[in-house]
Write a structure and sequence with these properties.
globular; 155 residues; 38% strand; 5-stranded antiparallel beta sheet; 4-stranded antiparallel beta sheet; mainly beta
């Protein structure tokens, strides 16, 4: 099954999708994680977080808040480098405080990609060349979405 135009993402409190939902201006997807250098992503293929020796190529830590319109189109991303995951949580709280009428819950968004700070961010179509088995990956978290396209994901 090919990738649908809108990718459902289930809200799971205290997990990878614990900061998704709606606000007065549309949809949001936030989090804190390590980035992955663009060059590693582009050259490594299936396992962009590992080098040729199988060692992690993790980048810096980021607080991330992606914003979308109500139709799931990417509008903007606030991607802030931080010193640690604790600092990232604080930065994300500050970003979320700028949104009005926040409600956490399931969302559906379109694929998008942002290259900044030397890293890849976004929901990227990673469908194999055969085009039959659709798959998208949320970077830099490496959260995979696929059939049955019900909002569930693999990590």
């Amino acid at each position: 099954m090919p990738v649908p135009e809108l990718i459902p993402i289930s809200y799971e409190p205290d997990y990878h999708t614990g900061t998704v939902g709606t606000h007065a201006g549309g949809l949001f997807f936030g989090g804190v994680c390590r980035g992955w250098p663009v060059v590693v992503y582009e050259e490594a293929g299936d396992w962009p977080w590992l080098d040729e020796r199988g060692e992690s190529q993790q980048g810096p830590c980021f607080a991330i808040l992606h914003l979308f319109d109500r139709d799931g189109r990417h509008l903007d991303s606030n991607i802030r480098p931080v010193a640690s995951f604790n600092a990232g949580e604080h930065a994300l709280e500050q970003m979320m405080a700028t949104l009005r009428d926040v409600e956490y819950g399931d969302i559906a968004i379109r694929t998008f990609r942002v290259d900044t700070h030397g890293c890849v961010f976004g929901l990227v179509d990673e469908t194999e060349e055969d085009g039959e088995t659709g798959y998208v990956e949320y970077y830099p978290n490496h959260i995979g979405f696929h059939e049955p396209w019900d909002g569930s994901y693999d990590t």
